[in-house]
Design brief:
The chain is 20% helix and 34% strand.
């Protein structure tokens, strides 16, 4: 373990709470709501548009970090969702942002439910439509909720395996999503919540979703990869006559359709976008294109995006970012063509931007010749860019999520400590087409793991990595990949850090939350079906727990006790086996966290231990100045 002689960026700059985050303009443009720490926990604040942030009013005093919020369309209320220390039992709350002593009201005061918000009304901003699984934990009934009275009215008792609803411009429920017993997905049209007609079907290997409506409400915008289409495509869909018309797919034929931006008043398409190595936008409105050209001219070399707008689009909040930049938020007055800096989320990070490292898109070949895209970050602090200690950072999911270009606190933290960081978008990662996505089915620990292993080979062959100093790290599926890497290819890695990763696919599938029932067959398609002999054999082969005797390298496991997705037993059982085998394993358990660490002291403590762990086993730099403070926090975590 080496304590650095050069100045390191304090880990709190990366993992402490941002000073200000997640700002949103009120629809009328008079106020800005935002998140800010209160007694160390992220809470909601509000201020008038022209006030300074230090004049803001505290709206909530939650002891569990607020997970997300939004304004009602009349700007009368702010609604937010929250759980209990990461258990993902969500309730919806309202708060009056104008009161002298703001009080939060739980609009769905039910225990052990996972409330889903389907639609927030523009026509009557006092109501929204929600799904609540109080009657049946597996399926959400449809309710209409009146905010001012907190009255819940059940509209539909869900005995049909409905998973979601689609509303048109008039806020009429036009469609429902359903998953059948075999895992196929259906889109049903409905007029009165009693008569349903099947209008579109996709199987386990396909997907489809409605993402908007034409201005006359007669046709829907449908994103789908059904049939012989590989890259998901934007269609115009007539739900009466079942006619599809192709509108757009990636002009460069590289990635899936990304997003659709439709004007709320003209109801016309403004732009589409695609997530390639970096984001690409295509404009259908010259006025908006000119607006964005102005943003990019004002902030050259930066990523620019809209995060919030007033209902009339005259006031806009934009974020300014990039791989080596602290995110900033600016307001823009369209009528006056006037910019104003609102805040920098992490001002201490901005002061050290010149020490951050560039993230470069790369690709390499896997064991079967499949091209794997990813990102490589080399430390600016390294005197030479060869024979470096390397960390392969594996994203979660696995099916659908992917890594993106841009600022990543974990990546920059590791690069600052002297590590090269590879982020592989292995098969099953989203956005690269249906065949790439489905190529990961039944390949946990097999070809999916090869994609990661061949990433290590790529680093070695290019001379970037010291082959004796390669580590693997990740959360959720990335935690599984860490365990699989150390169990199935122990010769590749010097050590690994597993964060909330499953060790036994049998118990993972047995313990999924009840409200994931619609996705059960989809999960089986990925991992193997535990109800068949072939599936059991595949799961046995792929579960690191049953191969723990092959793990012979240092391992750290991090777990949240309230995690409903990857339960604590996933970590407990492999720690028990490894200790019986005489293998030393570091195990950190946070009693007040779920599937990821949301509280800053826990994040800081975990990353301090990660930093020490990597410095000990593959070299690299270590910041020692927080040792006393972190050790006090770790007394709450270590078992």
């Amino acid at each position: 373990m080496t304590k650095s002689n050069r100045p390191l960026i304090d880990r709190e700059i990366f993992f402490g709470n941002p000073e200000i985050s997640a700002a949103q303009l009120s629809p009328d443009g008079k106020m800005i709501a935002f998140m800010k720490p209160y007694e160390g926990i992220i809470n909601l604040y509000v201020k008038e548009l022209d006030q300074d942030f230090d004049q803001a009013i505290l709206l909530t005093k939650s002891r569990s970090p607020i997970m997300g919020y939004f304004w009602t369309h009349d700007a009368k209320y702010i609604l937010y969702v929250n759980d209990n220390d990461g258990d993902e039992n969500m309730n919806v709350f309202s708060v009056d942002p104008y009161g002298e002593d703001p009080i939060s009201h739980n609009l769905t005061p039910l225990a052990d439910v996972n409330v889903q918000i389907y639609k927030v009304s523009r026509k009557d901003p006092d109501q929204l439509w929600v799904g609540i699984n109080d009657r049946d934990k597996a399926w959400h009934d449809l309710y209409r909720l009146q905010i001012s009275t907190r009255k819940l009215e059940k509209l539909f008792e869900n005995n049909k395996r409905i998973t979601g609803w689609e509303f048109d411009w008039d806020e009429t429920i036009r469609m429902a999503y359903r998953t059948d017993e075999n895992g196929n997905s259906e889109i049903l049209s409905t007029n009165n919540l009693t008569d349903f007609r099947l209008i579109y079907t996709t199987n386990l290997h396909e997907s489809a979703q409605i993402i908007g409506w034409t201005g006359d409400n007669k046709k829907a915008y449908l994103e789908s990869n059904k049939g012989d289409v590989d890259l998901s495509t934007l269609y115009q869909f007539d739900p009466e006559n079942l006619v599809l018309e192709i509108l757009e797919s990636d002009p460069e034929n590289r990635v899936d359709f990304g997003s659709l931006f439709v004007h709320q008043h003209s109801r016309k398409i403004i732009s589409t976008s695609y997530e390639d190595d970096k984001r690409r936008r295509y404009w259908r409105n010259e006025e908006w294109k000119s607006l964005y050209d102005g943003f990019e001219s004002k902030f050259p070399g930066r990523e620019v995006g809209i995060i919030s707008m007033t209902d009339d689009y005259k006031q806009i909040l934009i974020y300014i970012g990039g791989d080596r930049y602290a995110n900033e938020v600016w307001s823009y007055d369209w009528e006056l063509d006037k910019y104003k800096h609102q805040y920098t989320a992490r001002p201490d990070l901005k002061e050290v931007e010149e020490r951050l490292s560039p993230m470069e898109p790369i690709s390499y070949q896997s064991s079967d010749g499949l091209t794997i895209p990813g990102y490589l970050t080399l430390p600016t602090s390294a005197e030479k860019k060869e024979s470096l200690p390397c960390i392969i950072l594996v994203h979660g999911g696995p099916k659908g999520p992917r890594d993106y270009w841009g600022f990543n606190g974990t990546v920059q933290f590791l690069a600052d400590r002297g590590y090269a960081v590879l982020q592989p978008n292995f098969r099953a990662s989203g956005g690269y087409g249906k065949s790439f996505l489905n190529a990961g089915d039944k390949q946990w620990g097999k070809l999916m793991q090869d994609d990661i292993t061949w990433g290590a080979k790529y680093l070695i062959e290019r001379g970037i990595a010291d082959p004796n100093r390669i580590a693997i790290m990740g959360g959720s599926y990335g935690g599984y990949a860490t365990l699989a890497g150390l169990a199935f290819t122990p010769e590749v890695y010097a050590c690994g850090v597993d964060i909330v990763g499953p060790s036994n696919l049998f118990t993972l599938l047995e313990s999924i939350p009840p409200y994931w029932e619609a996705g059960r067959k989809w999960l089986y398609e990925m991992t193997g079906d535990p109800e068949t002999e072939d599936g059991k054999k595949l799961i046995q082969e792929s579960s690191p727990l049953f191969h723990a005797d092959k793990i012979n390298k240092p391992l750290m496991i991090v777990q949240g006790a309230n995690d409903p997705r990857v339960k604590q037993a996933e970590s407990d059982q492999i720690v028990e086996v490894l200790k019986k085998n005489g293998h030393d394993v570091t195990y950190l358990l946070a009693t007040d966290e779920g599937h990821g660490f949301r509280k800053p002291l826990n994040r800081l403590a975990m990353h301090a231990e990660v930093e020490r762990f990597f410095a000990k086993h593959i070299g690299g730099d270590y910041q020692a100045d927080m040792a006393d403070e972190v050790s006090k926090t770790l007394e709450l975590l270590t078992v």
